[in-house]
Design brief:
Distance between the termini: 113 Å
CATH superfamily of the largest domain: Hepatocyte Growth Factor
Number of strands: 37
CATH architecture of the largest domain: 3-Layer(bba) Sandwich
Pfam family, one: PAN_3
Number of helices: 8
Organism: Beauveria bassiana D1-5
Strand order of the largest sheet: 15-16-17-23-20-21-19-30-31-37-34-35-33
Protein name: Apple domain-containing protein
Shape: flat
Structural class: mainly beta
Radius of gyration: 32 Å
Strand content: 25-35%
Keywords: Signal
CATH class of the largest domain: Alpha Beta
Helix content: 10-25%
Length: about 600
């Protein structure tokens, strides 16, 4: 039967199928270990798997989908894995995983399809938008495309030509945090030889053409992926090496670390410290990271839970700082978190082997003291980006040039202007006044004693008065806003000690000696000393040492096994042994013209604790 042209067109539209977003499936586990990207971070899905630790966890109810749970995790720097219960619609945000039992619940009827685990895997490479999960919403011959944090992408036999139902607006982060993990590893022509992979707080280095000739304790068949082989070893605390068999694709887990040349094999070996020679200075523009794994993130900066930025030095200890305390930490991140929340701690060392494995320090700097098993962090300057010198224009009241500028109203009230933001707090008038410009809106506010801020919408010319004297926080493309910074001259002059402080100039270099640090432990070049002001060591034979300062006097003692401490008398340095050569008692006593610095631990340190 021949259809009229109009009917044929209607029928062709009716049978046109635009593909929908395919939901992830954990019931049949077809999407197990599938990747998902959100906020510049790539996560792997673990279906019906047990992931530890279970605590601490941040609980969020009424989460509609597993993907939304991953999105919540991606927004928080301290979330490293997330658990989603499909039945209860609850999302748990958790710290880095310590163990994974894949598909542990697959034979438990009540749990199958209910247990979704998201594990942070890596960051999206720099200068690229994140792969989008929303399809193009139009129709035509070209797939929808976008760039930025959530680009659209059309698919199917007749993909959309739009930009996606949630297109990105930018080109992706220019300097995103970096974990260094690759999606895949390849030993063809030694392409990825000595590349690193980090997960579960462990870092492994790939040695192409190497193997471990010892017998492994487990061989996993048909892994067929160098990366997956490394991951299986990293998640097993008893695994020392992971040997990949190129012929069969098997992965053999070894209990020891014994790399040897072996054609036909590739070996993952543990990597704890950066390659030598080590850098002698901090990186000028260090990259950011959300991962503390060493040595992959050596020379990176990390944002602590309190917002302070820390410089990461793997296999290093403090070169010179006052010890302010000790703590027991569950892991590397836990140690830095504890320091971030301690008001006296501004640098910290995590010792992977000690009992009190988290040592707090006062202010620290870049250290050239390198010690395997210890990772050092010190508070540093936050990251910066190049300013847009032409993004603002003085005296402008039009956006975007007015953003961040000051407007002085005729009444003397100063307003700080913000573009694409609004306050959104309760307005003084139920029905807003209308003014022809942003400037006239601010002028009207300045004439009202009760008015402290305005939200102005240029399209409607509505001017909203409110009493919020703080910066606006609500993103709103159609609005301009301003808040009061007080009247001209209101804060002139000095009403407190600030002017005196200004005349004194900046603070001098930080010291760790006497008298400020009497009775405190300090760490010099990775060696601990106890400060004893107006005390002297009595032990022999002692040596007079040439040193230009007490700092140099102590530093020269750190590397000497026969030096148990120093006396700094006037401007002279004396090195003393921890015990007397003749076996008589060595001790520390009070002396007004001497300051003593005693190594910890030792006989002299014990004597000092008993000194008056």
């Amino acid at each position: 039967m021949q259809l009229p042209n109009s009917a044929a067109k209607l029928l062709s539209l009716a049978i046109l199928v635009v593909p929908a977003v395919t939901a992830l499936d954990c019931v049949k586990e077809v999407d197990h270990k599938k990747e998902y990207t959100s906020n510049g971070k790539v996560y792997k899905l673990y279906c019906n798997s047990e992931i530890k630790p279970l605590t601490p966890a941040e609980r969020t109810s009424n989460v509609a989908t597993a993907e939304e749970c991953a999105d919540l995790c991606a927004q928080k720097s301290d979330c490293r894995h997330a658990f989603y219960s499909a039945k209860s619609k609850i999302c748990f945000l958790r710290p880095p995983q310590t163990s994974i039992r894949e598909k542990f619940f697959q034979n438990m009827v009540a749990s199958v399809g209910n247990t979704w685990g998201w594990i942070y895997d890596r960051d999206v490479p720099a200068n690229t938008g994140n792969p989008g999960s929303n399809l193009g919403s139009g129709t035509g011959s070209n797939p929808g495309s976008g760039t930025g944090s959530n680009p659209g992408s059309g698919t199917g036999s007749n993909p959309g030509s739009g930009t996606g139902s949630n297109p990105g607006s930018g080109t992706g982060p220019t300097t995103p945090p970096s974990s260094g993990n690759q999606a895949e590893y390849d030993c063809t022509n030694n392409k990825d030889h000595k590349k690193l992979f980090s997960i579960n707080g462990r870092t492994f280095e790939l040695l192409c053409g190497y193997g471990n000739h010892h017998t492994g304790y487990q061989t996993i068949p048909n892994v067929n992926s160098l990366r997956d082989c490394a991951e299986k070893c990293a998640l097993d605390s008893s695994c020392g090496n992971a040997e990949y068999h190129t012929g069969s694709g098997d992965c053999e887990l070894e209990p020891d670390n014994n790399p040897v040349l072996a054609p036909g094999y590739h070996l993952w070996v543990p990597k704890f410290c950066p390659d030598t020679p080590r850098a002698q200075n901090a990186v000028t523009n260090p990259p950011q990271t959300t991962d503390l794994s060493c040595p992959m993130n050596d020379g990176h900066i990390y944002e602590g839970v309190d917002g302070t930025w820390y410089y990461i030095q793997c296999c290093s200890d403090s070169s010179a700082a006052v010890v302010t305390g000790f703590a027991q930490a569950q892991n590397h991140k836990d140690c830095l978190d504890k320091c971030s929340l301690d008001e006296k701690c501004s640098s910290v060392s995590f010792d992977t082997a000690a009992v009190n494995n988290c040592k707090f320090y006062g202010p620290g700097n870049y250290s050239t003291v390198h010690k395997p098993g210890i990772h050092h962090h010190y508070a540093t300057s936050p990251p910066t980006s190049a300013p847009d010198h032409f993004g603002s224009k003085r005296c402008s009241t039009e956006c975007p040039e007015a953003d961040g500028q000051i407007f002085a109203s005729p009444s003397g009230e100063n307003f700080v202007m913000s573009c694409k933001k609004r306050h959104g707090t309760t307005y003084l008038k139920a029905v807003p006044d209308q003014y022809p410009s942003f400037a006239s809106c601010m002028t009207a506010c300045g004439a009202l004693p009760a008015c402290q801020s305005v939200d102005y919408e240029a399209k409607t010319q509505n001017c909203y008065f409110s009493t919020n004297s703080k910066s606006p926080t609500i993103a709103a493309k159609a609005f301009m806003s301003a808040h009061s910074a007080g009247c001209s001259g209101a804060c002139a002059g000095c009403a407190d000690e600030s002017c005196k402080d200004l005349k004194k100039g900046p603070l001098g270099p930080r010291k760790y000696g006497c008298p400020a640090n009497h009775g405190k432990p300090i760490t010099i070049k990775g060696v601990d000393f106890q400060v004893a002001c107006q005390h002297a060591i009595n032990s022999h034979p002692y040596n007079q040492v040439t040193a230009g300062s007490y700092e140099e006097c102590i530093e020269l003692c750190t590397d000497k096994a026969d030096c148990g401490g120093v006396n700094w008398i006037g401007t002279t340095c004396y090195h003393h042994p921890d015990n007397n050569a003749d076996g008589s008692s060595a001790f520390v006593h009070q002396r007004a013209d001497s300051d003593a610095y005693v190594k910890i631990p030792g006989h002299l340190y014990t004597s000092l604790s008993q000194a008056p």
